[in-house]
Design brief:
alpha+beta, Phosphorylase Kinase, domain 1
Length: 87
């Protein structure tokens, strides 16, 4: 997936050692969401799958952020999408 082709990056919501949270808008659906990008250099693929899987299955609960069924990788990051829930 090419991020620039699929998403407009609106701002970096958070950034740290374990990755970045990007506020984006999906170009086709005009849906606002965040992309959680975890660097491949510090993240094992099994850890990424675990976090994505748990988020996806637990997001049915009304008090947990929705994780969308969208995950992909770029050259340097593993990425999945979640609903945007501003403070």
């Amino acid at each position: 997936v090419n991020l620039a082709e699929e998403f407009d990056i609106l701002q970096i919501v958070g950034e740290g050692w374990f990755g970045k949270i990007l506020l984006t808008e999906h170009k086709t659906t005009q849906t606002e969401m965040v992309l959680k990008a975890l660097p491949k250099a510090y993240t094992a693929i099994t850890d990424f799958y675990r976090e994505f899987h748990y988020g996806l299955h637990l997001s049915a609960h009304r008090n947990i952020i929705t994780t969308y069924d969208v995950a992909f990788e770029t050259a340097g990051f593993y990425v999945f999408s979640q609903e945007y829930a501003p403070l």
